[in-house]
């Protein structure tokens, strides 16, 4: 059996203790006492070393208390009043009348409370970790005008990575006046938020909250710190106190034996209260393993010790081994033996060993193995510790590598970067206060933007590992907003310097903001300094805290099909879909949340509950330590339900425990509404016993869509365990539960045949119906959905006083999540228009604006809009509207259509097109076949490479990362440089040139046979031009342009196959505005003269997706024709391809138009951005298939593929540490699909025929006497290719 997510909650108890009396007439304090700054090094040990950051009780055997200043002996240090006031009462300052401390000499008084949630809080982010159970004990009281007991509550506030805030209830008790009471509870984090704040709250407003002491402890920390030897255990859940999480049985079964579940006969734990049992082992190597990739580093020695035992029929001691398994970047697997021990039955044995890594594999797994098959392996505890504390701390995911991050040690470890830094506990008479600790720092007297505050982190940051940076910052001394940036400076052993931009945010002098970002070092850094910079000179930077820790791996994406959407099923086929994720607990408790109780999943036949086996599958969930009847299991189904549908619910349940009578189990929906009010819907109820599984059934329907919908199970009495075998929630409304109806218009009354029904004016404008002239029909028929009739009516919008005013329709109930919708309509300007204006189809999704397509419209003709959109999160309201022209201009709309796109159906068409243009019939003729006995011989043909250009963007630092290089070389045949060839990189300061980076990248590409594009000679957008160039007058600017083009093209003559001559001329006009219209053609002419072998490209964005009226295919064509008329030797068309929710038909339409020019088309900077990796993969597949199937397209280059080295977030194919995601897997799968293979026999004519993609092949021939291998190339051509293969 297997237990996961297992954490037991201790029994709750309440201890009442009278408040000791104090002398009368005490002085009353209502303000926070002033705090003095500590002396440098005041928190260091006597020997000068930094002590551990966790407070440790001085009494032997006591667990660690992670709360700083837990008894207020240091005043309010580390504590913060939450929108109220607080002070510490002591014998010196005076106690409240009649109230003396319970345990020490002080207590905190939280006063002037206007809300019940106001109280005292402490940031514990750096002191907690996932999968650890923490016990909370607080001695609390209340004081004031109170007529009965008042509730006091302990709570966690969690700030998540997406900036959302959630709260975790710990415990609540009732407290009476004049007595101290003990609040006790516990919590465990399933994932690590960005910030964790513990706080006490609860009495009614006006009542003071008293706090004597607070203890948060864990006797079994995930990363136990030995205060004597500074030893860190990198093994998570080392003593199985949290079940098996995150241990994994290796092709066998395992469970945790405990007092509650029962121990094996005669076997008690050695050190704690649990041990793991690894059973049903059919091979000696089967055992228990844990992934420790993120916790080890090369160059450090790791010591291993494990207490192990064996169980079963044993006649002699059995050998148990500790082993490391390595998965390398080339997908090979290696093993390293750590140590072994011979174990006898009936005793625990200590296994010891050590290891050190000389290089970092892609994955490192530690496992225990060894007894003979049939023997059970017992594991009491495992420790892997690092003898180099500094290295191990830097490698730990949760460890902050920044020293003195909240300036509790003053300015120790910090320095000014070209300026002064000062320590403060407040500014502006207390108006600016620290957020987290007691102090903050200002970087002042700044006279350069790069001036700021810095810390050297050399030796604490490792290469090829991703780090996350979080700093709380603001500005001072300037009322305007300004950029604040986090930057890393790194120097390699050969002296090369590199600046890595980490994060940027707009900050002000009005509030603290969080600066967040990630970075990765590709190469070895002999020195590394992290700093904050950015605002203009004269503006101070304030820093409250600074955290740099290993970046947590992103949560695994869920395929859209698991969220109620299946794009690959015929739209007319009705399939009952279970909207519950992980419905049978086959993935542990993933997707489920424990509601104030504990739980685990039992897998296999041998579980802790005797006689209980799963009903439908091989797993069931156990909910235990339930102190209220409503404590159980829940799942958020907000994104999976819709209004107006009926959902059927069926759950297989039973109970367990001392309770003898049947008990009611209920299924319930909790609805959180937009006004934050809660309501509940009873779904179903069943009487359940211990003897057998029962079916709970019910149904529900939503009449309106709340902000949040939670499905949960509840009901047995407190103390009774609830067992859940499986949960199914499915749509039973056949008419509405069909899959997405592809091509069906979701706009009601789209042809306006029903007047203005379903349509409303947005704002105070007026709508009326008009008639479309007959000449409109031939044009309209080509653009709108052919399944719908063409209407002769249109909506006329008048009295427009704002640009956003126009016709609108609410479509909330017709939108499905994760579906790509195509937009098609025709618009025209009416009265009041004297020139063209932008018109766009917009969607208001709650408070977000989404562009559904855009065009520059005229008043003399109808203008087509084609666009697309997709919604990823369940909205409360979606409205579509048409907007854009300035006030006073009338707007006409005809035949608006929005319909789901059937991508899969189009793929069939694209495959046929691709095979037609990318494949060629081949006839292989084998010379001497009759004499050499080749007739009938078997052969295998394998394509080695497709000659179609697939490229990727690289930069200089990437080639120092072996994993990056390996992926690039295997999967791309072209390269483009990210910045190294751009003018602002090669000549950032006038006359100071840097071609070294480009030279080294070019040498790298040529060494490995990769073709290169030169990007770019010039960039027309002013923001991308370095300041010294922008400051030149027209004469000096022309000279600079000439020097740039001659210097670059002469240096690299013949080395770049392509050049983007002047980037983004549809979106910028810097050089043209200053040097005249002929300057663009001049750039092309000069480049061609200096390097005639290079193909010269125009290059621009948003050409292919209909979302930008500045860069339509028509405007791009006109620009190219104008340049050609002026003599520009344009050789290719570059489409950048930074696209979201692509629609194949729209892309193909743009390519068809551009192809009229007869020039090769390349996607030069392709990326797609979607947070969900499966959706990202789908989007990428759309563009790759469209491009590969179009005869005018000759190449595709991705603008980055490695996380942290892409243009847009959520566009990478490989994460920062080398793991290929779903989008990367889809790319690789398509590359494999576009390789041809064949096998068969040589015919009697000595020939073999096949059809294959253009590229390089090998053929292997096997005869009775010998084997022959040859290679050949299939190039482009319309007629069959006849090749003679010599013997």
TrEMBL record:
Q: Where is the GH10 domain?
A: 938-1230
Superkingdom of this entry's organism?
Eukaryota
Gene Ontology molecular function terms on file: endo-1,4-beta-xylanase activity
InterPro entries for this protein = CenC_carb-bd, Galactose-bd-like_sf, GH, GH10, GH10_AS, GH10_dom
Q: Active-site residues? A: 1165
Write down a Pfam family by its short name: CBM_4_9
Which processes are annotated in GO (biological process)?
xylan catabolic process
Q: Which residues form a coiled coil?
A: none
- Start and end residues of each stretch annotated as Disordered: 10-53
Recite the UniProt keywords alphabetically: Carbohydrate metabolism, Glycosidase, Hydrolase, Polysaccharide degradation, Repeat, Xylan degradation
- Asked whether the UniProt record includes Ligase among its keywords, one would answer no
Q: Which family does it belong to?
A: Belongs to the glycosyl hydrolase 10 (cellulase F) family.
Name this protein carries in UniProt: GH10 domain-containing protein
Q: What is the lineage of its organism?
A: Eukaryota, Viridiplantae, Streptophyta, Embryophyta, Tracheophyta
């Amino acid at each position: 059996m297997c237990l996961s997510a297992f954490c037991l909650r201790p029994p709750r108890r309440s201890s009442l203790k009278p408040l000791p009396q104090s002398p009368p007439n005490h002085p009353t304090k209502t303000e926070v006492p002033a705090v003095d700054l500590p002396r440098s090094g005041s928190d260091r040990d006597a020997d000068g070393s930094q002590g551990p950051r966790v407070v440790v009780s001085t009494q032997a055997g006591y667990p660690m208390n992670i709360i700083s200043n837990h008894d207020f002996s240091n005043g309010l240090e580390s504590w913060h009043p939450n929108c109220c006031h607080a002070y510490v009462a002591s014998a010196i300052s005076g106690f409240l009348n009649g109230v003396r401390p319970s345990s020490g000499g002080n207590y905190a008084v939280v006063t002037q409370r206007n809300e019940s949630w106001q109280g005292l809080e402490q940031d514990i982010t750096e002191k907690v970790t996932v999968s650890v159970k923490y016990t909370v004990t607080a001695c609390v009281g209340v004081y004031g005008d109170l007529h009965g007991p008042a509730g006091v509550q302990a709570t966690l506030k969690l700030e998540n990575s997406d900036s959302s805030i959630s709260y975790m209830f710990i415990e609540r008790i009732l407290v009476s006046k004049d007595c101290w009471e003990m609040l006790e509870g516990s919590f465990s984090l399933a994932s690590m938020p960005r910030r964790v704040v513990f706080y006490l709250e609860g009495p009614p407003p006006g009542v003071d909250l008293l706090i004597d002491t607070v203890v948060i402890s864990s006797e079994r920390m995930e990363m136990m710190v030995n205060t004597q030897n500074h030893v860190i255990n990198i093994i998570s859940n080392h003593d199985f106190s949290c079940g098996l999480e995150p241990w994994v049985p290796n092709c066998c079964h395992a469970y945790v034996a405990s007092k509650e579940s029962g121990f094996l006969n005669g076997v008690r734990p050695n050190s704690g209260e649990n041990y793991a049992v690894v059973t049903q082992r059919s091979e000696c190597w089967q055992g228990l393993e844990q992934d420790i990739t993120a916790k080890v580093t090369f160059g450090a020695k790791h010591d291993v010790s494990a207490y192990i035992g064996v169980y079963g029929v044993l006649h002699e001691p059995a050998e148990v081994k500790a082993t490391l398994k390595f998965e390398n970047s080339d997908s090979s697997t290696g093993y390293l033996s750590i140590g072994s021990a011979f174990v006898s039955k009936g005793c625990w044995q200590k296994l010891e060993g050590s290891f050190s890594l000389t290089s970092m594999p892609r994955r490192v797994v530690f496992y225990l193995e060894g007894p003979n098959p049939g023997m059970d392996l017992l594991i009491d505890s495992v420790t892997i510790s690092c003898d180099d504390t500094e290295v191990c701390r830097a490698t730990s995911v949760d460890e902050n590598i920044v020293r003195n991050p909240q300036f509790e040690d003053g300015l120790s470890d910090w320095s000014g970067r070209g300026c002064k830094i000062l320590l403060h506990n407040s500014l502006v008479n207390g108006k600016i206060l620290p957020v987290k600790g007691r102090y903050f720092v200002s970087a002042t007297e700044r006279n350069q933007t790069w001036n700021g505050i810095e810390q050297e982190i050399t030796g604490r940051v490792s290469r090829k590992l991703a780090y996350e940076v979080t700093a709380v910052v603001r500005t001072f001394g300037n009322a305007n907003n300004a950029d604040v940036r986090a930057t890393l400076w790194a120097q390699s052993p050969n002296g090369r310097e590199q600046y890595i931009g980490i994060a940027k945010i707009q900050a002000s002098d009005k509030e603290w903001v969080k600066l967040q970002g990630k970075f990765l070092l590709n190469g070895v850094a002999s020195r590394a300094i992290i700093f904050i910079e950015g605002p203009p000179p004269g503006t101070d930077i304030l820093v409250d805290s600074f955290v740099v820790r290993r970046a947590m791996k992103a949560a695994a994406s869920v395929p859209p099909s698991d969220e109620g959407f299946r794009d690959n099923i015929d739209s007319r086929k009705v399939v009952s879909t279970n909207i519950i994720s992980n419905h049978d607990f086959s993935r542990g408790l993933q997707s489920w949340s424990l509601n104030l109780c504990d739980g685990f999943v039992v897998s296999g036949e041998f579980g802790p509950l005797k006689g209980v086996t799963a009903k439908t599958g091989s797993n069931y969930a156990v909910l235990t330590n339930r102190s209220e009847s409503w404590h159980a299991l829940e799942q958020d189904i907000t994104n999976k339900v819709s209004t107006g549908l009926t959902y059927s619910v069926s759950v297989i349940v039973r109970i367990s425990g001392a309770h003898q009578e049947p008990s009611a189990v209920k299924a319930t929906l909790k609805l959180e509404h937009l006004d934050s009010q809660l309501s509940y819907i009873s779904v179903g109820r069943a009487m359940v016993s211990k003897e057998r599984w029962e079916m709970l059934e019910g149904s529900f329907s939503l009449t309106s869509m709340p902000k949040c919908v939670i499905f949960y199970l509840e009901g047995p009495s407190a103390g009774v365990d609830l067992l859940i075998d499986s949960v199914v929630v499915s749509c039973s409304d056949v008419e509405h539960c069909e899959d997405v109806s592809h091509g069906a218009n979701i706009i009601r009354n789209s042809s306006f045949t029903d007047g203005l029904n379903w349509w409303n004016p947005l704002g105070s404008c007026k709508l009326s119906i008009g008639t479309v002239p007959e000449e409109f029909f031939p044009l309209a028929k080509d653009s709108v959905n052919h399944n719908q009739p063409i209407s002769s009516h249109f909506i006329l919008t008048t009295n427009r006083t704002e640009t956003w005013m126009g016709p609108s329709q609410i479509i909330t109930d017709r939108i499905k999540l994760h579906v790509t919708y195509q937009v098609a309509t025709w618009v025209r300007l009416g009265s009041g228009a004297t020139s063209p204006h932008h018109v766009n189809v917009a969607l208001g999704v709650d408070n977000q604006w989404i562009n559904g397509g855009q065009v520059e419209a005229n008043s003399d003709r109808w203008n087509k809009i084609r666009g697309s959109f997709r919604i990823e999160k369940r909205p409360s309201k979606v409205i579509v509207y048409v907007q854009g022209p300035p006030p006073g201009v009338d707007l006409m709309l005809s035949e608006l259509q929005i319909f789901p796109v059937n991508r899969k159906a189009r793929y069939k068409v694209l495959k046929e097109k691709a095979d037609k243009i990318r494949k060629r019939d081949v006839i292989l003729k084998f010379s001497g076949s009759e004499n050499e006995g080749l007739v009938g011989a078997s052969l295998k043909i394998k394509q080695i490479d497709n000659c179609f250009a697939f490229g990727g963007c690289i930069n200089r630092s990437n080639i120092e990362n072996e994993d990056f290089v390996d992926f690039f070389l295997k999967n791309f045949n072209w390269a483009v440089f990210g910045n190294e060839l751009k003018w602002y990189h090669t000549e950032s300061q006038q006359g100071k040139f840097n071609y070294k980076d480009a030279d080294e990248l070019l040498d790298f590409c040529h060494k490995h046979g990769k073709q290169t594009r030169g990007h770019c000679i010039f960039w027309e957008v002013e923001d991308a031009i370095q300041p010294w160039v922008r400051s030149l007058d027209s004469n000096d600017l022309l000279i600079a342009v000439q020097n740039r083009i001659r210097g670059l093209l002469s240096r690299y003559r013949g080395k770049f196959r392509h050049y983007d001559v002047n980037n983004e001329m549809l979106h910028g006009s810097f050089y043209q505005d200053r040097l005249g219209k002929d300057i663009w053609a001049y750039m092309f002419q000069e480049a061609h003269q200096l390097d005639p072998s290079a193909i010269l490209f125009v290059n621009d964005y948003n050409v292919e997706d209909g979302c930008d009226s500045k860069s339509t295919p028509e405007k791009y064509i006109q620009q190219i024709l104008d340049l050609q008329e002026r003599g520009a030797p344009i050789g290719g068309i570059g489409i950048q391809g930074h696209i979201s929710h692509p629609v194949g038909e729209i892309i193909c339409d743009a390519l068809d138009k551009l192809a009229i020019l007869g020039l090769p088309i390349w996607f030069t900077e392709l990326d797609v951005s979607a947070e969900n990796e499966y959706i990202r993969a789908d989007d990428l597949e759309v563009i790759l298939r469209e491009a590969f199937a179009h005869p005018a397209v000759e190449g595709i280059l991705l603008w980055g593929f490695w996380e942290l080295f892409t243009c847009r977030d959520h566009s990478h194919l490989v994460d920062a540490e080398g793991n290929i995601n779903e989008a990367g897997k889809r790319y690789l799968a398509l590359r494999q699909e576009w390789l041809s293979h064949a096998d068969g026999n040589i015919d009697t004519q000595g020939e073999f025929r096949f059809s294959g993609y253009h590229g390089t092949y090998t053929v292997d021939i096997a005869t009775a006497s010998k084997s022959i291998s040859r290679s050949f190339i299939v190039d482009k051509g319309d007629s069959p290719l006849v090749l003679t293969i010599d013997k």
